[in-house]
Write a structure and sequence with these properties.
Layout: E1 11-22, E2 28-40, E3 45-49, H1 56-63, E4 71-76, E5 79-80, H2 84-87, E6 90-93, H3 105-115, H4 120-133, H5 149-161, E7 167-171, H6 179-194, E8 198-203, H7 206-212, E9 215-220, E10 223-228, H8 230-235, E11 240-246, H9 250-254, E12 262-266, E13 269-275, H10 276-288, E14 292-298, H11 303-313, E15 322-325
Helix pairs in contact: 3-4, 3-5, 4-5
The structure holds adenosine-5'-triphosphate.
Adenosine-5'-triphosphate (ATP) binds at residues 20, 22, 30, 32, 50, 52-58, 204, 320-321.
Length: 326
């Protein structure tokens, strides 16, 4: 039997596409993915960031062999995604985990451990270890139907971790968690990376992506529109300047003929964002028209700005996958 290639990339996908048939007569097609390339190196935390319907879950489902791609290839450690020995190296947290409600948390995680090949004392020790890591030791004897959403998410993470995976694939790991729960989930993911585990996760929560990722891909409408480290992506943005103007209404500012990145009237003031290159012209125009500038400062580069720009540039007023009629 073929074995996983430990020197191969944990994840390598090329030209992935996926169309779903929808509608009562299945006569409409949604293009969930359109030629996606993805490479995740060992020990990285890699984020897929995108709005609702961008194709993040579809990508993850293809990697987990839950959905077949319509085109392209996906490899885990150099092997196809249905390769049994390779799949044992992967821990998976689905988007809406639905564990058996009448099992206790410990029974559920023990079952997952058995399925990943553990037994006897090793299994017992490992279950205790992961239940402790996700801070569920105190509630491990309760049936899952008594758990809160955050507790279900933790126990589902414990089942993903129990088999000591080399690669963790997490679909929206922090969704539905309160700020403390999100923080703890982030710490757990970082701790796994520190143990050498490779992590792929998807999210639309920008601060989580910013806090966790070594690299990320921004997906919009099933396409990868940006890729790189957070630092690379953020510093590649066009520098902009924020200006607060008084004594001049927004309509008059717009008449100055300077391209504004954003403009908002608030409490008798106008908040403006303009490219660095245009800022002097705007300043001159505002002062010349009798306005007063009471603050001017470089805008902080952020992943959020990048994300918004990516959405705007891809021409998507809405974020759902491209639907075509056939
Ligand atoms: N089983 C399915 N049948 C039909 N269309 C689907 C199916 N799964 C996903 N889609 C469509 O494919 C597109 C991409 O969906 P996907 O769930 O991959 O996006 P996502 O980025 O994970 O979004 P979200 O953040 O909302 O989970 C969407 O337009 C969605 O409606």
């Amino acid at each position: 039997m073929q074995t996983p290639h430990p020197e191969a990339l944990p994840i390598q996908a090329q030209g992935l596409s996926k169309t779903y048939k929808v509608g009562f007569w299945l006569n409409r097609t949604v293009r969930a993915l359109q030629g996606l390339d993805l490479q995740v190196g060992p020990g990285q935390i890699y984020g897929l960031l995108g709005p609702n319907g961008a194709g993040k879950s579809t990508t993850i489902k293809i990697l987990m062999n839950l959905v077949r791609p319509s085109g392209g290839t996906a490899l885990l450690y150099g092997q196809p995604v249905d390769h049994a020995a390779t799949r044992r190296l992967v821990g998976f947290l689905p988007e809406n985990p639905a564990p058996y409600e009448y099992l206790t948390g410990r029974e559920f995680v023990t079952l997952a451990g058995q399925l990943s090949g553990l037994s006897g004392q090793d299994l017992d020790r490992r279950v205790t270890e992961v239940m402790g890591a996700v801070e569920m030791a105190g509630a491990e004897k309760l049936q899952i139907r008594r758990y809160s959403k955050g507790m279900v998410q933790r126990v589902a993470l414990a089942q993903a971790l129990v088999g000591r995976p080399k690669l963790l694939i997490l679909d929206e790991p922090t969704s539905g968690l309160d700020p403390l729960g999100r923080r703890q989930m982030r710490d757990l993911i970082l701790a796994e990376r520190d143990h050498g585990t490779t992590v792929l996760f998807c999210s639309h929560i920008i601060p989580d992506v910013e806090a966790l990722c070594d690299r990320l891909a921004v997906l919009v409408g099933g396409r990868r529109v940006r890729e790189g480290s957070v630092q690379e992506l953020v510093s590649a943005q066009v520098p902009t300047v924020e200006m607060v103007v008084e004594n001049l209404p927004l309509e008059k500012v717009k008449e100055l003929g300077v391209v504004l990145e954003s403009a908002q009237a608030l409490d008798g003031r106008v908040l403006l964002q303009v490219s660095d290159a245009d800022s002097q012209r705007l300043l001159g125009g505002v002062l010349g028209a009798g306005g007063r500038v009471n603050r001017i400062q470089p805008a902080r580069f952020s992943l959020e700005q990048l994300f918004m720009d990516a959405l705007k540039n891809s021409g998507r007023a809405t974020s759902v996958g491209g639907e075509i009629n056939t």
